[in-house]
Amino acid sequence: MEAANAAKANEAREAYDRNSGVRYSANCPGIVELTFVNKKLYIALTGAIVNISVTGCLLSNQTTPWSTIDLGKAGDSAFDLIDEDCHIYIPWANIHRQGKVRRVGAYIIGVQFARPITEDLARRIASLEPSSVLHFKPRNARRYNRILPLGHK
User: Fold this and answer.
1) Over 70: is that where the pLDDT of 11 sits?
2) Cβ contact 111:59 at 8 Å
3) SS3 of the chain
4) How many degrees, rounded to 5, is the angle at CA 61 between CA 51 and CA 78?
5) What are the two backbone dihedrals, phi and then psi, of residue 58, each rounded to the nearest 5 degrees?
6) Which end of the chain is more exposed for a tag (fewer CB within 10 A), N or C?
7) All domains of the chain, ordered by start, with CATH?
8) How far apart are CA 43 and CA 150, in angstroms?
């Protein structure tokens, strides 16, 4: 069963070509909601979208819970602990997208959108820059960057 799941995950990763399409540099806030494989816990991570394309984006977060844990010694990787399905929200553009997690690192998460966005929208999101007018502060900051039971979602 595990071998079949691993083969399926490898096929999905190979099907998602990060180099397809133009990737635009970006610096705007984003939120990615991840569910853990046990389906009992989730985490909503706030961060900055580093780059974006019509097929996906790369979100950077300095406060991931696994950034301070050496998962290599435990025999697990962060990618093995997180369910593939996710939800991404780009508040300044008011974009909600379902997606698939394709990369997980100590400080980054690569997401492939379930439905591609338009080229114009990708360029518009890439042009959003932080300024004194645009600040992203969640209403309930305690809900973010913490592992919580799925019932709190």
Assistant:
1) no
2) yes
3) CHHHHHHHHHHHHHHCCCCCCCCEEEEEEEEEEEEECCCCEEEEEEEEEEEECCCEEEEECCCCHHHHCCHHHHCCCHHHHEEEEEEEEEHHHCEEEEEEEEEECCCEEEEEECCCCCHHHHHHHHHCCCCCCCCCCCCCHHHCCCEEEHHHC
4) 100
5) -120, 120
6) N
7) 2-152 (2.40.10.220)
8) 9
Joined tokens for residue 53: 């394309």
Q: Give the predicted TM-score (pTM) of the model.
A: 0.74
Residues 47, 86 contacting (CB under 8 angstroms): no
Residue type, 75: G
The pLDDT of residue 102 is above 50: yes
Task: Report the sign of the C-alpha dihedral through residues 18, 100, 55, 33, in that order.
Answer: negative
- Tell me: the pLDDT tens digits for 126-135? 888 765 455 5
Q: CA–CA separation, 148 vs 153, rounded Å?
A: 8
Distance (Å, whole) CA 116 – CA 57 = 11
